[in-house]
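FORM 7B - TANDEM STRUCTURE REPORT

SECTION 1: FIRST PROTEIN
SEQUENCE AND TOKENS:
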Amino acid sequence: MKTKTPSLTTRLAGSAAMGLALSAMPASPQQAGNATCALVDGVLPEGCDFANEATVVRTPVGANTEVETGAVPGVSTGFSIAIDGETLVGDARVEDAARRADVALADADVQVRFDGLEINPRLDVEIAGDPQAYGPGDSAEFISRTNYPAFIERAEMRVIDMRARGGPRTVAVAPVAANGRVSLTLPEGEDLAVVHRVYDKAGRFDETVPLPLSVADDRGFREGFEEGSDNLARQRIPLSGGSITVFGSNVAQAETVEVLGEDVRPGPDGKFVIQRIRPAGTYDVEVGIRGAGRNVDFARTVTIPGSEWFYVATADLTFGQREQSGEGDAAIESSESYAQGRLAFYAKGKTKNGVIITASADTGNEDLEDIFRNLDEKDPRSLLDRFDPDLYYPTYGDDSTVVENAPTSGKFFLRVEKEQNYFQWGNGQASLAGNYFLRNERTVYGAEGRIATAAQTSGGEPRAELTFYAAQPDNLPQREIFQGTGGSVYFLQRQDISVGSETVSIQVRDEVSGRVIETQVLVYGRDYAVNYVQGVITLAAPLSATITGGLVSSAPGEGETVNLVVNYEFTPTTGDLDGFSYGARAQAWVTDQLRVGVTGTTEETGIAEQTSIGADILYRYSEGTEVSLDYAKTEGPGFGFSTSVDGGLIVDNIDPAEGDGEAYRLAARVDFKDLGFESEGYFGAYYEHRTEGFSTLDYQVLAGTGDETLWGIYGEGRPNERLRWAVYYDDYENAVGDYSRTGGAELEYAINPRLGFAVGIEHTDKNNSTDVGRRTDAALRLTFAPNDRAEYYVFGQTTLDREGLDRNDRYGIGGAVELGRGWTIAGEISEGTSGTGGKLRAEYTKDDATSYYFGYELDPGREYGSYTLVGEDRGRFVLGGTRKVSDQVRMFGENSYDIFGGHRSLTSAYGLEYTPSDYVAYTFAYEVGLIRDSINGDFDRNALSFGVRYEDDKLTARGRIEARKERGVISSIGRDADTFLITADARYKISEEARLVFSLDASKTETDQSSVLDGELIDLTLGYAYRPVLDDRLNVLVRYRFLYDDYGQQIDGSDTAGPVQTSHVFSLDAEYDLSKTWTIGGKLGARLSESAPSSEIEKQQNDAYLAVASARYHLVHNWDILLEARALHAVQAELTQYGALAAVYRHVGNNVKLGVGYNFTSFSDDLTDLVQDDKGLFLNVIAKF
């Protein structure tokens, strides 16, 4: 449910045919035209009596938020009425201490607020000093940032080596106080990152997403300021109570602020804010401001309740006799009784035992016999209504905003939660993890939940846990796999993807077997950005294609493949999504080391019909020693995926595997220290078998390979600081006879801190469609580091023995140098039997968010998807960077040029942010994709984005233009398409009494309808509201909407398109208070429309005009009377109708109104209601809470 806050008026949005709820506020005597009705010695003058002066109503009052301090010593407890701390009426001995604190806070421009329902935990880590990259041996000071220190028993900073052999590994731990600081000298590691972890008294812990240290943290934090940032990756500490927020302004730079016992640093604008989550109870919020000639100390006592509720509900029931009539020879006269109603509510609250409940329902206006039916079914109409918060009028002049607290695609929402357990019915993201083969990340509508025990392991995991979902998917999933290009820009296959539905990760795979070695999930805003309209992913740092494997290599670019994996949701242009998705996972830690789990999923979407089940066992002795067994079985095809090696220009779509299949995997790893050895090291092994037909997100076992079996062992040791050794063996084979077996050993020795060497030997045995034979290679590498800023190496390898396979001789030189002033250069060049290879990388980084990079890679053994090399491969170039030109201008650009023989491609991306002032900002982006291929065809893609936003005290406006043009042929398939989109909105505060709003959504597309529909759309809305603040006798609402829809938009992904139309709709509502009880009003409406069932049928004109005049009598808590006259003119039908409506309502208590009325006309004041069945007598019952 969307709640509108503050909700100052809804009186002009109701239906006159339903009698109107008449929620208008009463006019004061001054507003009613008698300006002399002011109190004289506490008494109204003669002639100022109120018509409802004898009415007595009990009005419930909420619990006092102030703390009861008890009686004044020695006297009886009395009462007082005080203004600004001065007692005026009552017992002068009763002090209003709370009010005195309020006055002091107001004088100091400080506000204290608390909220017992909204608890939003935040945890983050900040690095002190100017942004810079850190490496082993550097000293860094880490700052803890959290808003729930009251729940934290201890905290620590954990340094993780993300590229440690065998997976991420903790290499350093430093304790730190919550919101404190700690300095740490970074240990050795390949790719260091810091994680902030905090524990509660029970040992449960929360921790942040790993923050990379090898690149500067450019999140724009100001040291010592409360930024309100959150980087939580895992949240297990249960929080209760509420949040206390203190914020202030006009603090001089020389002044210091202390709040809740913590020092708070104001910003350059003199403002500060601090929020803390506290358990339920009473607190003295002490605030101190010192310096610059003033020393202010005061306290505000607040109580965070253990139980608190907010709710609003309405029931609107109508019983009547409907008389339906028509005109002319085809007139139809009929009469029938009806009983209709609408029930709606929203509630959120918490109980004393910590249960938080959020619920909402809206049945819509239905026959009473059907009002409770189909509450759980998806309601496309209500979903569209929720997309448009300005359904009736774009503005009501009250500056209200819309917050979605109960997202649902149906008529009902419920969420019940306590600590980490919850049940929800509504819109959500179903996520299952834990089994190596089975994962699920879907956006769905339906039921989902999690149940976990309070008991936990020593590692902070619940002893037992169940997660589940049973829902209807809102969209279809798309999975795209991009091999790293050395750049940071990647084009998705789909456009107009669902906002926030993406999951972006970097995945390292074995190049031969496809085995997933490591997966790292990226964080939106920090690691990547996405253009949801254009379908473009931009990484914060370039992504290489491979990670260098062992010392011996078959080619310069050989190694473990690095992929960018993007899962996201999109609404299909064709197809039906009326199916269901089910899934569940249950797991239990039998001991602190042993976990067992089962997973099951079912997809019935019409496109994918699949059932998957899995089971897994994990024994984790320590962080570095564990054994796992995973099993999974799939029945039926799932969802396929697409792959690309050039950033998304050329895409290969992989269909899902047909039939049934299964897979199992046994893996083990043991740390030497767990075996009692002093030296560092580990051993590991794995065995995996997948049968034909097995289909999951990560694996598709097709008929081309049949059953697949792979196994291997690996180990690494470091007996001392000088010596390192490693061994490995990987074996892959499939049912069609292909196999690949590789084993080797390496030895690395440091002669002294500057000079070292490494030797290695590797044996390879292959049998596939391109290579058959065996080979043994040996390699030698000599490394020299003249200082800490430079390293050079020379290497050579040769084939000792071979049969069938080509020789693999190669020699070359390389190195990396820090040139100073932010420059780093690394490169390698080599020559061998397979050709010339090389790579070069140059980077420049400044502390003020300016960086440049250039890369070149030539791999003589490179493959380019399904393309066959024609000519000579000349490698791939990447040039890009970001630059902070000034405080107002930031620029980004990247070019990637690939010369794969006769196939040449170019991808370019440019972006600019220009912020000339605090009020206005411009953004510009331009993307280019070019393919030149004399055999497979040429292709051109150009995409342009331009945006502007402006905000000051009166005007808030933003707009964006998106354009994309594609021309050409790829693999004999035409790819011509044009997309042009405009979106804009603005709100202008003409005065305190008047508002003006504007919105525009326009699109023009010419496509093959595979990604976006083909057609045109213009949706323009203007709104005006006049709402006086002091003398509100006159209120005016105006709306104009122009809609041109050539798409015939589909609803809920169905195959049937809606009508195409061109329409102008105008409406004006006005009310004027004649007195404190009488109000006159009127409405003018016009509809000029052309519509047709589809674009193939000629549109028909359908114009109409409406006029309504009304008079209302409103006596507070007593009577409401409505008299209304209407006129409707249908132009094409040459018909004019007149009518009237009368209704009388009586208030019963505070919550109920009973009304009776008669509609003398058969048409309503809704110009979209084409059924003339509104005439007749009605009885209306309205209850509101």
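SECTION 2: SECOND PROTEIN
SEQUENCE AND TOKENS:
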Amino acid sequence: MEQFRQIGGVLGSLRALMVLQGSIDVNPRQCRLLVDAFDLAFHAVADALRTHLTFDPKHTLRWRPLEHPLAELHLICLEGEHYVRRCLEPKPIWWGKVLALSREADCVEFHLHNLLWCLPVVLEAIEAIAEGAVGFDDEATRKNRVLVSKKYEKEWMEPRLFQHKLGELYLASKDFCARLDSASREDHWILSQILNNRKISPLDPLTDHEKSLRELLISPKSQLFPSSVLVQSPGYQVCKSSSNFMEVQWMGESFLVEHLIGRTIDEASIANEISALASMVHPNVSHYMYVLADQEKKEWFLVMEWMRMDLSSYTKNLCSTKNKASFPLLVAVDTMLQIARGMEYLHSKKLFHGDLNPSNILVKARSCSPDGYLHVKVAGFAKWSTRNSKSSTSVEGETDPCIWYAPEVLQEQEQAQDGSTNNSNSCINGRLRCSEKADIYSFGMICFQLLTGKVPFEDEHRQKDNTSKNIRVGVRPLFPSQSPKYLTNLTKKCWHSDPMQRPSFSTICRLLRYIKRFLVMNSEHIQPLVDYFELESSMCKSFTSCVQKDVLGASEVPFQMFAYRVLEREKTSANVKGTSWDIEGDETSVWGEEKQNTGILTDDPLLSPQVNQDASMKSSAKKIHGKLKQQLFRLVSPGQKKNTTTVIKPPQLSGRSFSVNNGNRFQQAMMIPARRSTDQIRQNWWILCLLHSAMAEGKQEMPREDQGTARRKSFYGFLLGILGSAFLLALAFQLLFPRATDARPAPTEDDANRCDLFSGEWKKDSSPAYSNSSCKFISSPQDCLTNGRLNTDYLSWRWKPYGCKIPPTDTRKFSNSMRGKSIAFIGDSILRNQMESLLCILSKVEEAVLVYHDETYQSKTWYLPSHNITLGLIWAPFLVNSTEAKSKKDIQIYLDVLDPVWTSQYQNYDYIMLSGGQWFLKETTFWENNTIVGCHYCPGKGLKELGMDYSYRRALRLIFHFLSAADHKPLVVLRTWTPSHFEYGQWYSGGICNRTKPFNEGEYNADPVDAVMRNVELEEFQEGLVNGLNLSLLDIYHLSLLRPDGHPGPYRKYHPDISKKPQEDCLHWCLPGPIDTWNELLIAILMGEEELRSSL
């Protein structure tokens, strides 16, 4: 437990450091993400220890297998702490720290990658101890075996199921993965804001050199800057130089600079290649952080991160005269993995090295590692690089560079010779043919040197002139007999004579991650019981799309480790006796415990009755999970509850409309329906009361003989009673809840030149513009397909206005027209729903970066850097001030005070989208002038019931008064009321929405509350126009009213158990879904406004 205590100590240190997180001005979001990840990992390990193990001082040896995994996790935490300290510590020269840290990817792709790899290893080690605790609390041990076997059921080997079931445990949840993707971009935006503020600060004005540094930091990485920014900096010093490389001190930090002279290189080719190479950022690739040039002297300065030396020199320094291995086995495998990850990244960019050898691999010691771990970067892949002419050296002197080249490359060189047989075996100085498989061969030779400490072929005593020929005929260096077979097999596959038999670097990375896990869990480094290439083959068959990815992101590492473990358990159990799922056999596969002098695996006699029980539980689990996967993947039309619907024409819901002329310009034409107020309902209520009173009086005055006759004819009286009651109910409904208007009229010839975008019908059309898998902005409650919804017909409808078409949504044109603009969405969760839809639509052109969120993640800000567009989501459900943040019941709303959350940011936006209403249906108390004036739904409080329409009207009126008085005059778009489609109840009262297709005109009874609230919006909107406000109306009520099929329903949760009748959401909308049409119409409005502004 000492290692676990040490991890807790590091975590405590990090928490203390983060007290000062406001002082972190370089990579603050990445630092916060790293600390949060360590905290989550620590609690995951602690929970696993509590669940599976009990501490017994008499049996501390049981915990020994945890020592190495926890030590590895401790090392990762120490390195993470060092990273946070680097970002936090004050530097004498602030600019140097920013230059060194702002353009790296170490947080996610190095520190978090290592954490996400190590956490499954630690958890598995805990489970292995719990499973293998023979003789200690046998009942608890059996339970642990059952728990672990269920966790590694093969049915969970599906990425989305894994993310749902185990995502929180393995730090692979959807929210955490989104933070991994956005943290570095958020930090870049924050840094740009800091630099902009320093530019305009009168208290600390920038010098000319600092202004140059500022431009260098905020400009695109490929942009060329004058070399004076580097060589004329205060304190600039060349510490060491070798060939074209220099170690320099720049602004107090060490950098490696590649110095190129224009007379010896093709300047045009350099300029073209730099723009591609400068954008490559990976912790295992030596990338160009800054590019500077002196045009007059034709000099280029390519600034890179400083590394201590190349791998060839480092290996030579560590090798002993007895040819012992230069690295511990675990360190060698870690170094191999880092090289493979760097090459995997380069190959994903379609960049092949062509000269991969130890001289082109830069290394430096990791500061917190006592075991010799290195930080590795692949270098020398630029076409102009001169490092590739440098040969790796052995302990005896110069080495033939041909040993690093693949046989097909040497064969190509042979064919390129002029016909001279004497020189056919010598290598050409310069760049040979580049290919993916040739790089993998070179990697295999590097692996040999790392595992043996020897340069390939140095023990063969062959003449130098024969090296190339020997390689081409299939001669390879020999491993010592004690070399681990699982590593020698991998190396031999990499240097296979047939290029097609060599694995890809993605495969190599997966294998090395799992081999490293095996070494950490098995300090004796025994031979594993399964062939890891067999696991990889099974993985490829099961997940073609997963393994075909060019680069495995850090967030996908936990699933890869889990899937490999499931496959390993399955293959191991198949080899243990005749059982289909032998837990004890699998335990043996992890720790390699065998009976002495026999090949029989150790058995636990107490497991005999348990095996059948486990097999039975597994069979049951398979049935359950089989049904789950069937729901997820099979698109079967669900049964729909049959019920009759009264055919009543819906209300006329026309709002803002547009005219389309030959210039494709929109002109506004407002069509407001006649006013209707709640007075009509009150009048109809009195009519109904009078009718009821008259019927009662008539019954009392009925003669005795008529009553006797009625009693004798009870059957006919019963029927008449039913008919009378039905008539009375129908009359009551018509009187209390009159229809707003008739259905929308069919288009006429007058509509030819007049297009009301909000009047039309839904027509079958193609699939949506984006998918659940292509957009990462979809919240889980709106991710209906991922949550198990089987019917997909709701995706194949498009809104068709009468007499016209919605202008085609040109996302790129819209993004360009909004360049430099800002848009705010102010309202409640339905507006958040709409914002996520807009982000998905815009992601086809550019993916937005989350640059701000409040403590509750309700208000957020996204930024599109290429177009300089800001999108703000401001949580203000009442739009006026309220206590909703403190209480969801008996909310106090202040109808004469606007919510400062949005009014304080109003002036920062060019366009404002406002919506509200649904929250006004809650139990609320109304305040005006610091006095309670009434309430909505407050029985027993003795307050005046004013109704939700009163408070909503007062809020809109106050908003429009604020807009009229404000100096800032953006275009304000009011989105109308959103109808819900609950049937047989409401929220928390059994309401459902199980329809699978849109309504036709007249198939739906409009909720009278919806009609009343929408009328309030239209009336106040019309008053606002009369008062000269710059308003527009997004009237989505009618088109949304016709889409009962577009709600999440029960699929607001992941694969809900329908038989238990879960709470359904019939208010928000699935994504993709009908709500995308709202944004198509919004885009049309905003582009029309931009065209209008540009014409003035």
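SECTION 3: OBSERVATIONS ON SECOND PROTEIN
The mean pLDDT is 78.
The chain has five domains: 2-131+173-207, 220-305, 309-527, 693-736, 760-1095.

SECTION 4: SIGNATURE
Preparer initials: ____
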